[in-house]
Amino acid sequence: MRHAANDHRKWWALAGVSIASFLGCVDFTIVNTALPALQGQLGVPVSTLQWVINGFLLAMSSCMVVVGRLADLHGRKRVLCIGLAVFGVASVVAGQAQGPGLLIAARVAQGLACAVLYTASGAIVAQAFAAHEQGKAFGVLFGFNGVGLAVGPVLGGVLTQAFGWPWIFLINVPFVLLSLLLIAVNVDESRADDQGQGLDWAGAVLLLVGLPSLVLLIVQGYSWGWASPQSLGVLAVAVVALALFVWVELRVGAPIINLQLFANRRFVAAVLASFSLAVFYCVAFFVMPLYLTQVRGADVQASGLLLLPTTLGVALLSPWVGRWVDRKGAGPLIQIGLLLFAGSALLQIGFSASTALPSVVAAFAVMGLGWACLLGPSTVLGVSAVPERFGSVAVGSLMTLHNVGGGLGLALGVSLLRHYTGPAQAVAPDALLSGYRAVMLALAVLMVVAWAGQRWLLRVGAAAGVPQCPHG
C-alpha cells in the first residue's frame, strides 16, 4: 500500500511542477499579442514596450543557472515554492500597473521567478521518478511546456479582447495556488549530492552586471549616440564585467558556464543552434503581432489565432522529432530547422498590408516546423556531445546561452525596427512594414550563416572525434 501511495504522489507531484513550468511558457508568449493594447493604453513607444519582454527574458537568462544551483544547495521544493510565490505576486502587480515603469519591474520579477520554475521543476521530476520512468515523465513535462507556448498567443488575444490586458497577468494567480498546493502535498524535499561546492558568487555577480549592460547599450545606443559618453561608459562596464566573468569561470571549481566545454565542436554546434533558435523566435514573436495589428489591422484575438500555427507546430511535432533524432541523429534535423527558419523569414519579407491570409499562415507554419526541428535536437546534441558526468553542466550552460541569445537578439531586432519607425509612439504602417521586412531579412541572413556554421562544426567535429572535456 505504501508503494502504491508513493506512486500516486509522484504523478501528482509531476502535475504540480508541470503547471509551474507551463506558467513560465505561457507567460513568455502571452504578452506578445497584447503589445498593441499595452502600447495604446500606456502611451509608450515600441522602444519602451520591448522592455516588457526584454526585462523578463534578461532576468530569466541571467539567473537561470544561479537559481538552479541555489535550488540544489538549499532544497528544490523550497526554492520552487518561493519562485511560485514571487511569480504570483509579480503577476498581481503587473495586472495592476498603471505605467510602464511598474509593469517592467513586475516583468523582471516574473523573469526571475520563471528561472526557478524552469530549472527546479526538471530537477524535481528527475528525483521523483526512477530512470526507466523518466522518459515518460519528462515527456509529460515538455508536453505541458509545448502547450503553454502554443496557447499563450491565443490566450493573450482572447483575454485582452474580452477583459483587457491586465488579465493576461491576473489569470496566473489561481494556477499558482493550485501548483503550490500540489507541490506542498506531494513533493519530497531534495538537494544535490555535491553540496561541498557552493555557488560561484563572483561569476554570478559579473554575469548579472555584464549582460544587462550589453543589452542596455544595444537598446539605448541609437538614442544616446554610439560614441556618446553614456554609450562608451556602458560598453566599458560590459566589456570589463564579461572579460572578468570569463577569467573567473576558467578558474573556479563549480562555474556557472563551463567554458571548457567549448573545446568540443559538437557542443559548440549545439550552442549555435540553440542560440540561433532563441534569436529568431524572440525577435519574430515581437514583430509579428505588430505586423498583424498595425499593418493588417487585425484585432488582438485574431492576431493570437494567426500565430497559433507557429506554436502549435512545436507542440504537435516535438514527439515525432524526438523519435527521428533517436534514429537519425540531431545534426540533420537542426540543419533542416535553420533552413526552415530562413525560408519563413524570406516568405515574410514579401508581406504587405494585403497579403492573402493563407500565405501569412503558411509562412508562420514554416516557422513552427523549424522551431520543432531545433528545440529538442539542439539539447540532445549538446548533452550527447560531452561525457555523461558533464551532462547537467552542459544543459545549464546551453540553456543560459539560449536565453542570452534571446535577450541580445530582441535588443538588436528592436533597434533595427526602430531605425525605420523612429521613437514616435504612433508609427505609420508603411514605416513599420519597412522595418518588419528589414528585420526578417536580417533573420534570414543569420539563419543561413548559422546553417553554414553547423555544417562546418559537425563535419570538423566528426573528423576530429569527440574530445573528452577536461576536468575543472
Give the CATH architecture of the largest domain. Answer: Up-down Bundle
What gyration radius follows from the Cα positions, in whole Å?
21 Å
- CATH superfamily placement of the largest domain: MFS general substrate transporter like domains
Which overall shape is indicated by the principal axes computed on the Cα atoms?
globular
Order of helices and strands: HHHHHHHHHHHHHHHH
Uncertain stretches? 466-472
What's the CATH class label of the largest domain? Mainly Alpha
Work out the number of β strands. 0
Gap between N and C termini: 46 Å
Main beta sheet: none
Which class of secondary structure composition applies to the elements?
mainly alpha
Strand content: under 5%
Mean pLDDT: 81
Q: Can you count the helices?
A: 16
CATH topology of the largest domain: Growth Hormone, Chain: A
Count of discrete domains = 3
- Percent helix range: over 70%
Structure overview:
- This protein has 472 residues and is an all-alpha fold.
- It folds into three domains: 1-190, Up-down Bundle (Growth Hormone, Chain: A); 200-253; 257-464, Growth Hormone, Chain: A.
- The chain is 82% helix and 0% strand.
- It has helices at 2-29, 35-42, 46-74, 76-96, 100-128, 131-163, 167-170, 172-186, 201-224, 229-249, 265-295, 300-328, 330-349, 357-384, 391-421, 429-464.
- The model is unreliable at 466-472 (pLDDT under 50).
